[in-house]
Amino acid sequence: MEKNTIIKNILNDLYELDPALREKEAELIKTIGNLLDSQPTIQYDENFQVKLKELILEKINQSPIEKSSTWKNIFAVRNLAVGSALLFIIAISSFVFFKKSDLSDNKQVTVKEISSNAFGELGSIPADVNQPISTQGSLSYNAREAVKVEGRGGAYMDMGFPNQFIIAYKGQPLTLNENQATVLRRIKEMKIDSFNNLISSHSNLVNLSSFAKAELQSFTLSQDKPFGYNISVNTQEGTVSIDQNWYKWNPNCTNYGCGEEKPLEKKDMPSDEEIIALADGFIKEHGINMDNFTKGEVNKEWQRFAPELSSAMPYIPTDITVTYPRKIQNKTVYNLYGGNKDGVMVNVNIRHKRVSGLYGLTTQKYESSLYEAETDFGHLVKIAERGNNQNNYYPTPMGDVKVFDAPQSEKENESKKKTIELDTPSFELVRYDHYKDYKTKELLIPALVFPVIDAQKNNYPQKNIVVPIIKGLFK
Question: Which residue ranges make up each domain of the chain?
Answer without folding.
Answer: 3-100, 111-189+367-468, 229-366
